[in-house]
Amino acid sequence: MQPKTISELLSQNTVIPEVEIKGWVRTFRANRFIALNDGSTINNIQCVVDFEKFDEATLKRVTTGAAVHIKGELVESQGKGQSVEIQVANLEILGDSDPETYPIQPKKHSFEFLRENAHLRTRTNTFSAVMRLRSSLSFAIHKYFNENGFYYMHSPIITGSDAEGAGEMFKVSSLDPKNPPLTEEGKVDYTKDFFGKETNLTVSGQLEAETYAMSLGKVYTFGPTFRAENSNTSRHLAEFWMIEPEVAFMDLAGNMDLAEEFMKSVIKYILEHNREDLEFLDKRLQDEDKKKPQAERSDMTLIEKLNFVTDNHFKRVSYTEAIDILRNCKPNKKKKFKYLINEWGTDLQSEHERYLVEKHFKCPVILFDYPANIKAFYMRLNDDGKTVRAMDILFPGIGEIVGGAQREERLDILKEKMAAINIPEEELWWYLDLRKFGTAVHSGFGLGFERLVMFATGMSNIRDVIPFPRTPQNAEF
Ligand code: 4AD
Ligand code: MG
């Protein structure tokens, strides 16, 4: 088989008289050396041009960003940094790129600038590496579930229910927003809408996944989810992807085991299959780190962090134990927590989560048995009557990466909890049916895919790990 991509060409160790490649020019040095990239690898292939053999007009068109088609001989490279290169015999310009206006110059650009050029930012080393890793991670996720007896379930994007009961939904409506039909009470009449009722974009596929777990046994969803929360942080998106496994006859302890094994397995996959990209990103981070004062430098490299997660047990700690630790800690004499935790029953802020993970335990942490009042209605109430079988997984540098729970399987208690927060039974009649017909213990969790990609790539802003980020201020593309 003839090598077809730059990745394949670079792995050759024999001379090949005729090779052919298409890609985009990264740089053209001394009218002689084209560094060409086609997206198949972080590495460019060097294409050596004998300028006497080509007319000046063609060579002038070899500019950064131009698409070219090259034919030539693959030979051993005399230069440093690569084992092979192409001696160009044929050079065809497929698409010009005006060097005056092409935004991606061969120099370091800020991530802010590249975010404004999200349509071209994968032409850079950092973003192409991040997006190849994103693709690999999603493959590893499907692979893990496929090999472990799970069915892939497609949960709906348009739905009438609010899975998290938090009211953070984007409405879907075909009605004219300026002049909607009104009911006698003057409210928007959604019975006249396309779907005949009020609908929204899904915040989570969990409730629908529960219906499938209660027939197919082990299922997972992996799709886009939407949150209309006005959080402008480096960890929140209005549109993000979530992986949600749901398993019948599995309790909270089983849920923790599954989450830990699953996370380790997908991280192992990229350590084995995406070495070059990880090494590139690792070096980038180490260079950034060197610019920081000693005290702020990371004590592990990216690859060490990934290995640490795969090799160590996630620490399991109850919410009550965590609150005790936070109450008694002295995080830093000068810099106290902005939000102090004094009372049992308050939710943890991300600074608390990060303290537990990064300073106290120094490893991934699974927090469980949260107070019922700060968690969603569907979580299984414990016998103490005040905590629920919830679990959050906290990762270093990220904070919450997974949220999950054992589900309330008892009809009467679920109805009470829904009534307490005014969810009408008619709205979730089908969800209640699962508790009427063959109910059973079941559990699941949601992994925020972009937060996993952040952890795996060391990127510090969630906007830089999804192709076209949707945040309160940004939906240009
Ligand atoms: O904790 P959350 O809200 O849990 C659920 O949605 C459950 N229904 C999941 C389940 O049990 N099946 O969200 C789960 C994860 C979070 O831990 C976080 O990683 C991610 O989804 N997440 C977000 N990621 C990016 N932007 C946002 N706005 C996010 N909100 C949640
Ligand atoms: Mg959560």
UniProtKB/TrEMBL annotation:
One of its GO terms (biological process) is asparaginyl-tRNA aminoacylation. One of its GO terms (cellular component) is cytoplasm. One of its GO terms (molecular function) is nucleic acid binding. CDD domains: AsxRS_core, EcAsnRS_like_N. Residues 131-467 form the Aminoacyl-transfer RNA synthetases class-II family profile domain. PROSITE patterns: AA_TRNA_LIGASE_II (PS50862). Its EC number is 6.1.1.22. InterPro entries: Aa-tRNA-synt_II, aa-tRNA-synth_II, aa-tRNA-synth_II/BPL/LPL, Asn-tRNA-ligase, Asp/Asn-tRNA-synth_IIb, NA-bd_OB-fold, NA-bd_OB_tRNA. It is found in: Cytoplasm. Keywords: Aminoacyl-tRNA synthetase, ATP-binding, Cytoplasm, Ligase, Nucleotide-binding, Protein biosynthesis. Gene3D superfamilies: Bira Bifunctional Protein, Domain 2 (3.30.930.10), Nucleic acid-binding proteins (2.40.50.140). It catalyses: tRNA(Asn) + L-asparagine + ATP = L-asparaginyl-tRNA(Asn) + AMP + diphosphate + H(+). PANTHER family: ASPARAGINE--TRNA LIGASE, MITOCHONDRIAL-RELATED, ASPARTYL/LYSYL-TRNA SYNTHETASE. HAMAP family: Asn_tRNA_synth. Belongs to the class-II aminoacyl-tRNA synthetase family. This is Asparagine--tRNA ligase.
